[in-house]
Design a protein that fits this description.
Blueprint lengths: L3 H11 L3 H11 L5 H10 L2 H4 L4 H4 L9 E3 L7 E6 L2 E9 L1 H6 L1 H17 L4 E11 L7 H24 L3 E8 L8 E11 L14 E6 L9 H5 L19 H15 L5 E6 L4 H12 L3 E5 L12 H6 L5 E6 L4 H11 L3 E8 L3 E6 L2 E7 H4 L28 H12 L8 H4 L10 E3 L7 E7 L2 E7 L5 H6 L1 H7 L1
Parallel strand pairs: 4-5, 9-12
Antiparallel strand pairs: 1-2, 2-3, 3-6, 4-6, 7-10, 7-11, 8-10, 9-11, 12-13, 14-15, 15-16
Helix pairs in contact: 1-2, 7-8, 7-10, 8-10, 10-13
GO molecular function: ATP binding; metal ion binding; phosphoribosylformylglycinamidine synthase activity
EC number: 6.3.5.3
Enzyme class: ligase
């Protein structure tokens, strides 16, 4: 076991707490090696395991008569919409990457949420976005930077959504100086699927082959999840290597290949997209959900760069990649589908029993860990809550304004970026692609989509809303209002 001084040193290098390193050592009965420690540093980050927020998130209502898959059970939630069909949806943030590299940060946020939806077997039908940025008016350096971020973020969302042919049908955009240099970028995606075609992200069946599909693996996005879990500093631009780079054209054909394969019943046993922590996260999550283990040969992973070690391969966040667990003996069916779409597909291992993850590199075991220790057994904390600043105090009551007093404030309010028309934003989005948009952005409080489902037509309304000021003054009331 390491001593306290050694754990303090490792904590500085990895971002883990010294007591978390001790927890790993006690669970394993030995100190983790360098590659194993790198895995824990990412999979035990807030971005991956929600160790600081999970207790609060569990308070949200997640059950109901129409709920098919609850929040946190799979890659996205699912609700029954009748006639054997379900709507699958999720919203996810990509804040830190968008602050450092706004175009790619926002674009890969769209790509990531897209994969979460079709990983469930659903065909995506729309995107929405919820954006918060700092003040954009004036000539200050902060305002100029916020305008740069706004152009990049909107451009990235438009680029990815337009290229994959899925409409961005609505959203919200607000500005406040509290977001200077630290934007909030949330992207929502919804899709539809038959109940009996829902896919699961669990490994099962000892001996079933494990495949990686999609883009080649490179060093882009290394430890991006750990980066997304820490505070942004003045040197944030130095974190550009932690920002992933998206390829919407590969994203499109990967989606089509996966959906075609899912339609062939019994071929796919489990599926997981590769987002945060890449192969390391996707293999550990699917193994833990299925109470299984995996034997993975990292030398079989198709690489884009030379000289990548085991940690690089496991933690790479190269985009447009999927992990597929197939039924043994039906590999040829998958290979035929992916060859048709021109998407790389390679077997990298197989499902094993015992719940252990073994990753080999150059014929040697690089990692030997229980899957649950990386995922379900990650620490969960109950943090002390307090009012952050004096500005969060309740505002004093004021008497109602007269009509005369309203005239000047009205013209002022009409000129605020948060209240002004957002047409400049949504005109960059192809919100009519797919010919299912009945009510698009800027026309009502919600978008309306027409979905044709095997001879039946259904209409779905979608919106995303929140009031940042309410949430700042009273988080509980702000959350309730949203």
């Amino acid at each position: 076991m390491t001593n306290e001084a050694e754990r303090q040193s490792l904590a500085q290098k990895t971002g883990l707490l010294p007591e978390e390193i001790l927890r790993v050592e006690e669970a394993l009965g030995r100190p983790p090696n360098e590659t194993e420690l790198a895995l824990f540093s990412v999979l035990w980050s807030e971005h991956c395991c929600y160790k600081n927020s999970k207790r609060e998130l569990r308070k949200l209502p997640t059950q109901g008569p129409g709920v098919l898959i609850q929040a946190g059970e799979e890659n996205a939630g699912a609700l029954d919409i009748g006639d054997g069909w379900a709507v699958v949806f999720k919203i996810e943030s990509h804040n830190h990457p968008s602050a450092v590299e706004p175009f790619q940060g926002a674009a890969t946020g769209v790509g990531g949420i897209l994969r979460d939806i079709y990983t469930m077997g659903a065909r995506p039908i729309c995107f929405l976005d919820s954006l918060r940025l700092g003040e954009i008016r004036g000539g200050s350096s902060a305002a100029r930077n916020n305008r740069r971020l706004l152009r990049g973020i909107v451009g990235g969302i438009a680029h990815y959504g337009n290229c994959v042919g899925i409409p961005t049908v609505g959203g919200e955009l607000a500005f406040d100086s509290s977001y200077d240099g630290n934007p909030l970028v949330n992207v929502f995606c919804a899709g539809v699927v038959r109940h009996d075609h829902l896919q699961k992200g669990a490994a099962a069946g000892v001996g079933n082959p494990v495949f990686v599909a999609g883009s080649l693996t490179g060093r882009d996005g290394l430890k991006g999840a750990a980066f997304a879990s820490r505070l942004l500093g003045a040197d944030a631009r130095e974190d550009r290597p932690a920002v992933q780079v998206g390829d919407p054209f590969m994203g499109k054909i990967l989606m089509e290949a996966c959906l075609e394969l899912f339609a062939q019943k019994g071929v796919v046993i489990g599926v997981q997209d590769m987002g945060a922590a890449g192969i390391g996260c996707s293999t550990s999550e699917t193994a833990a959900r299925g109470e299984a283990g995996m034997e993975i040969d990292l030398d079989q992973v198709p690489l884009r760069e030379r000289g990548m070690d085991a940690a690089d391969i496991l933690l790479s966040e190269s985009q447009e990649r999927m992990l597929l667990i197939l039924q043994k003996g039906r590999e040829a069916e998958a290979e035929t589908v992916f060859a048709k779409w021109g998407v790389p597909l390679r077997q990298i291992g197989h499902v094993s029993e015992g719940g252990l993850l073994r990753y080999r590199k150059n014929g040697k075991v690089a990692v030997d860990l229980p899957a649950r220790l990386l995922t379900e057994d990650a620490p969960v904390y109950e943090r002390e809550a307090k009012i952050a600043t004096a500005s969060s105090q309740a505002l004093p009551a004021k008497p109602p304004l007269t009509l005369a007093e309203c005239r000047s404030p009205w013209t002022t309010l009409a000129g605020l970026p948060s209240l002004a028309s957002k047409e400049w934003v949504w005109r960059q989005y192809d919100w009519m692609v797919g010919i299912g948009t009945v009510m698009g952005p800027g026309r009502a409080d919600a978008a309306v989509l027409r979905v044709s489902l095997e001879g039946r037509t259904k209409y779905l309304a979608a919106t995303v809303d929140g009031n940042s000021r309410y949430a700042a003054l009273d988080p509980r009331s702000g959350g309730r209002a949203a």
